[in-house]
Amino acid sequence: MTDFAAAFKAVDATGPRGRSRTREYQPGVGPLTENEAARLATEWLQTTKPTQYGLAGPKPYPHSRQLCDLLIPSEWAIEIKLIRPFGDNGIEAEHWSENILHPYAGNVSAIGDALKLAHSGFQERKAVMVYGFEHSPAKIDLKVVIKCFELICRDVVHVQLGPRSYADFPELMHSCHQHGKVFAWEIIGRTVS
Questions:
Q1: CA triplet 81, 112, 29: central angle to 5 degrees?
Q2: pTM of this prediction?
Q3: Which residues form the domain of 67?
Q4: In this predicted structure, what is the pLDDT of residue 192?
Q5: What pLDDT was estimated at residue 193?
Q6: Number of structural domains, the chain?
Q7: 193 with 152: CB under 8 angstroms?
């Protein structure tokens, strides 16, 4: 996860500016969409570590048109999720944790992705990676929602996770998205309930 933390930090240093239909956001990696940030981070990794990430990118699931966010051939199939409690305007987003915690198969939450990966048929190791942003110091601690994710995976949908990996990327340029964090778990499989 340290590679991805370094990649998000490097993307932030370029001052990217996300946009909505009506306005441009403050510079930094924090306001970017999940797809924009993942694409830019992957491009940075492809450039700085081509041996490891040169062929990495979104790829279809076996026997499906759905795309896995990041396939590192012969290594990892990774689904990526963004958690961002505050918007560019500094106001807490009303449903920000749903992107992680919605516990139903077929959903686009991190839990839905864990279920999808558990049954995917990828030969590579499978993982869910969640990255997010806090104030410094944190107004909302991301580790609370991360612990909820682990609890729901274990006790509700019965997805067996490997140990949590963690890396951070502090001192970002955005006024709300000041401190970035990356969490990841290998998806071992499903347990019998």
A1: 5
A2: 0.94
A3: 2-190
A4: 66
A5: 57
A6: 1
A7: no
